From TrEMBL:
Pfam family, one: T4_deiodinase
Domain of life: Eukaryota
UniProt family annotation: Belongs to the iodothyronine deiodinase family.
Any GO molecular function: thyroxine 5'-deiodinase activity
Keyword Oxidoreductase included in the entry's annotation: yes
InterPro entries: Iodothyronine_deiodinase (IPR000643)
An example Gene Ontology biological process: hormone biosynthetic process
Record's keyword annotation contains Hydrolase: no
Taxonomic lineage from the root: Eukaryota, Metazoa, Spiralia, Gnathifera, Rotifera
Function: Responsible for the deiodination of T4 (3,5,3',5'-tetraiodothyronine).
Protein name: Iodothyronine deiodinase
Length: 289
């Protein structure tokens, strides 16, 4: 590597660090300070109730005006009950929280250059590089045998094969040809990372290899009692997290894919995770059989 190349690399690294600092000030620092204010002014309970009421009003307005529910309003209400402000405040005193968030924002800066977000924006084609590992489908369960026969497939191949699975209750209600899929990605709150102080949220360590990730998927299946009869497909991301990075899926995100195309892209979770918005989109854009 030449001296000039070293200089360019150092310059880019410096820019990335400065941009990461800015993002840290805008996101986690402001989030914690806002949560701290809510807690010390004893507004937490009323704040949570207010968010839930706003979400209910938004859903009612959506129904009467035939408008899509606001993802951020719905997502914030959903998150408020699970992760109240006091939980965010306790993160303030966790070194792991700040290390985790620094790495997250630094990674996002890198991704914006190497894997631009427009690659998986609404209307774009599903990238051919998105790969997943089948774990549970209508005809297959990875852990049925002692010897794991792992296969990596392209996400696009499922759409090209017109692979539709009817999720019993939802399908019967709406009568739509919908394939519901879960793609398990890296942990949001690993027990050895940014750990929540509630055991039900943080009891799985960061995946060090693909076996760790597959074991985590297996735990999900067993805890939620999902079987082949549920007609719900579950896949795992590969250990390079490429599909997760492509779709900016961490910690959770909703998509609708059809004919190699991204028809719907939900806002990033948890504050943008909105089932009512997805439901509205499906009812108005997916043809009934």
């Amino acid at each position: 590597m030449s001296l000039f190349q070293h200089f360019v690399k150092l310059k880019n690294e410096s820019i990335d660090i400065i941009l990461t600092i800015k993002r840290m000030l805008v996101r986690p620092v402001m989030m914690v300070l806002h949560s701290l204010w809510i807690v010390i002014t004893l507004q937490e309970k009323s704040w949570i109730e207010n968010k839930k009421k706003l979400a209910e009003i938004d859903r009612n307005n959506s129904s009467s005006n035939d408008e899509m529910p606001n993802e951020l309003i719905q997502g914030t209400a959903f998150t408020a009950g699970l992760c109240p402000p006091s939980l965010a405040v306790r993160s303030l005193f966790s070194v792991n929280f700040w290390i985790f968030y620094w790495n997250l924002e630094y990674q996002r800066i890198k991704l914006s250059r190497n894997l631009p977000a427009y690659l998986t924006s609404q209307g774009a084609k599903v990238p051919n590089t998105a790969q997943i590992i089948p774990v549970l489908t209508k005809k297959f369960y990875l852990f049925d045998n002692d010897k794991i026969n792992m296969e990596i497939i392209k996400l696009r191949s499922l759409i090209k094969d017109k692979h539709f699975i009817k999720l019993s209750d939802y399908y019967n209600e709406l009568n739509y040809p919908i394939d519901f899929m879960i793609i398990y990605i890296e942990e949001a709150h690993a027990s050895d990372g940014w750990k929540f102080d509630r055991p039900k949220y943080s009891f799985i360590k960061n995946h060090k290899n693909i076996q760790d990730r597959l074991n985590a998927v297996k735990m999900l299946i067993e805890i939620t009692n999902i079987t082949k009869e549920n007609h719900l497909s579950i896949y795992s991301d590969t250990m390079d997290n490429h599909t997760n990075h492509l779709f900016r899926a961490w910690p959770e995100r909703l998509y609708v894919l059809h004919n190699d195309q991204i028809l719907y892209q939900g806002q990033p979770g948890p504050s943008g995770y909105s089932i009512p918005t997805l439901d509205y989109f499906l009812k108005r854009n997916v043809k009934k059989q």
